[in-house]
Specification:
By secondary structure, the protein is α+β, with helices and mostly antiparallel strands. Helices cover 30% and strands 20% of the residues. 48% of the residues are buried.
Length: 631
């Protein structure tokens, strides 16, 4: 266990936010440790704190906190996620008719008795299990080697008695199974052995499958090195993760193993998919090994180290967790704040069913099908099956496709290119339309509507985007805060941004990330009209925040080199570097001659107002140019 504590880890533990510890560590010692390693500047008020409660409240980092001995042990257990249980060896669901077996554990007494998922326990030791609850579950538990008698109603309607010997069964944080050509990995946390579970499972089942599905919904993280090892099983060797300290030093987390499969991967995510899970899901997408299906992830892009008795004499069973690094994924982008934007953005509850549609084999004969190219990979949907048995999932899938998604419709042995707009009639499905009703005449229509599909912009709430409108400085902050999925309750950044105003949370969130500045004298001028050069400066800062390599570009292109260039003569000096970054730094190839700008550099009007359509097009070009949005 001590070896684990020396590892660099990317962790999030939601439950830890509720901790109210009895402190053994002094404020002075805590500040000394923070000065050594905390990733951000320590607020000056922190040095006035009299208690650790006050100190951590001022630091205001949900991932930097103190743990008592008991809380630390609980924390380690939650990260590992492995355990043992003594009983019949099955996960169960309570129903009004009895205890339903959700799954049967390998090596369990239930497995030895031939029980399977879907079987219903209707009595235990002759006691009815109607309206099943915890009291009935307790009857299944007991000492190793003892026998429990249960009455089971099987799927075929038969009712049989079973005598099951209780066994101790290991519960792992990861399970790997395969059925009907699909490999399924259910991972609850990235503990120290999770990478091994991935590798062993893929080696065992890969020949039987044509596609892998990895379920990371609700997986709030764990050890970064375990996520890297699991990722390498699908993408092979290379630098798969980067850690950047406050000083700017970058540590690379590399893997030298070869990949264990060349099959595509579908990763399932939700809003609680965080930290190490984002390292994995973002790595799969960034390395074009698969796609992400579900809802946007949590957005934790910082890593912590743990100070404890193993590395500091200040502790005796207790510990201090400190945010020490920002991390960047295999493609150089961070998940911090913005999370992982799914390739197919659907409600996480229906994500498994949507994934199952994408796992279909290419239908033979005359059967109709869809051929989707997502993140450069081929996926097929059997339309008759989808329409007959999975209509809601089909509708969700179709409504999640961007206007310019690559789609083919196949039937009678041939296929043709189709537009997303055609799919409603081709698939005979009432597909919800996520596009805006007033963008058809805009030169940037597809880009605006793609952002709408991915729920990165929301328009005015009445189905309209108002593409030709100008934007105030407050409105720009709200637009970008929506796209990043952030807000802030912090106050006091600007004297003219009143607390509680409709834009305060967005302006303050953008200021906290150093993406916006004021106009002087502590003012922000929220109602002022934003110009093109002001907007491009903010977007340049956003590119620098999102991508690790943007810093290198800026270092190689100082203002002194750019300012004399003719193309920047109409720009204010403070706007040149951000604009140049957008124009020339574009890690992913696009069809744009303007890089990540909304138009060619020589067609910009720096002092003119930025229009909503221009702002949206720039945002789209930035997210796709960096690879943050990849479909």
């Amino acid at each position: 266990m001590k070896a684990l504590l020396r590892r660099l880890c990317a962790l999030v533990c939601v439950g830890a936010l509720l901790i109210t510890p009895t402190f053994a560590l002094s404020v002075e010692d805590a500040l000394d440790l923070l000065e050594r390693s905390y990733v951000n500047e320590i607020p000056s008020k922190a040095y006035e704190a009299e208690t650790l409660d006050e100190l951590f409240a001022i630091i205001a980092d949900p991932y930097t906190y103190y743990m008592t001995k008991e809380e630390y042990q609980s924390f380690l257990s939650s990260v590992e996620g492995d355990d043992t249980v003594t009983g019949i060896g099955a996960s169960i669901l309570y129903t009004k008719d009895g205890i339903m077996l959700d799954s049967v554990l390998s090596g369990s007494g239930a497995e030895a008795a031939g029980l399977v998922s879907g079987d219903l326990i209707i009595a235990i030791e002759g006691l009815s299990c109607e309206n099943a609850n915890e009291e009935h579950r307790a009857l299944l538990l007991g000492e190793v080697g003892t026998v429990v008698h249960i009455t089971v109603k099987h799927a075929d309607g038969s009712v049989r008695e079973h005598a099951i010997t209780r066994r101790t069964v290991a519960l792992h944080n990861t399970s790997v199974t395969a059925a009907d050509g699909i490999g399924y990995i259910d991972c609850d946390t990235f503990g120290s052995q999770t990478g091994v579970y991935f590798s062993d499972g893929i080696k065992k089942h890969d020949r039987q499958v044509r596609l892998w599905v990895v379920d990371l919904r609700g997986n709030t993280g764990g050890y970064s090195e375990s996520a890297v090892k699991a990722l390498s099983a699908f993408v092979g060797s290379g630098d798969l993760l980067y850690f950047k300290s406050k000083s700017g030093f970058v540590h690379r987390s590399s893997c030298h193993d070869t990949d264990l499969t060349d099959k595509p991967v579908i990763v399932l995510t939700n809003g609680r998919t965080a930290s190490a899970s984002e390292i994995f899901s973002g790595g799969i997408s960034g390395r074009n090994a698969g796609i992400v299906v579900g809802s946007r992830t949590f957005g934790k892009g910082v890593a912590q180290i743990v100070y404890d008795a193993d590395n500091s004499s200040l502790f005796d069973g207790d510990a201090l967790k400190v945010t020490t690094y920002r991390f960047y994924l295999a493609d150089g982008n961070t998940s911090d704040r913005i999370g992982i934007i799914p390739t197919v953005c659907v409600d996480s509850a229906i994500a498994p069913e949507v994934a199952s549609l994408l796992c279909a084999e290419k239908p033979a004969g005359s059967s109709a099908y869809l051929h989707l190219i997502l993140n450069g990979l081929d996926f097929y949907v059997n339309l008759p099956d989808a329409q007959a048995s999975h209509a809601p999932a089909l509708n969700a899938l179709l409504s999640a496709l961007a206007p310019d998604a690559v789609v083919f419709y196949g039937e009678n042995g041939s296929e043709r290119a189709a537009t997303v707009k055609e799919l409603c009639s081709l698939c005979a499905s009432p597909v919800p339309d996520r596009s805006f009703i007033d963008t058809s005449q805009s030169a940037y229509s597809d880009k605006i509507n793609a952002l709408g599909v991915y729920q990165l912009v929301f328009g005015d709430g009445n189905g309209m985007f108002r593409p030709s409108d100008t934007m105030t400085r407050a409105e720009v902050c709200c637009l970008l805060a929506q796209a990043l999925g952030i807000t802030s309750d912090a106050d006091g950044y600007f004297t003219d941004v009143p607390s509680g105003s409709w834009y305060a949370g967005s302006v303050n969130a953008m200021a906290a990330l150093d993406l916006v500045n004021g106009v002087g004298s502590g003012r922000f001028a929220p109602s002022g009209t934003m110009t093109q050069e002001e907007f491009l400066t903010i977007m340049g800062r956003l590119a620098e925040f999102l991508n690790l390599n943007a810093d290198n570009y800026l270092d190689d292109h100082p203002l002194a080199m750019l300012e004399p260039l003719e193309c920047y003569q109409e720009f204010s000096p403070w706007a040149i570097r951000g604009t140049d970054l957008l124009a020339n730094f574009c890690p992913h190839e696009t069809d744009e001659q303007a890089g990540m700008l909304f138009t060619a550099l020589d067609r910009l009007e720096p002092k003119a107002p930025i229009l909503r359509e221009q702002a949206a097009a720039t945002m789209y070009n930035l997210l796709t140019g960096l690879g943050v949005l990849s479909y």
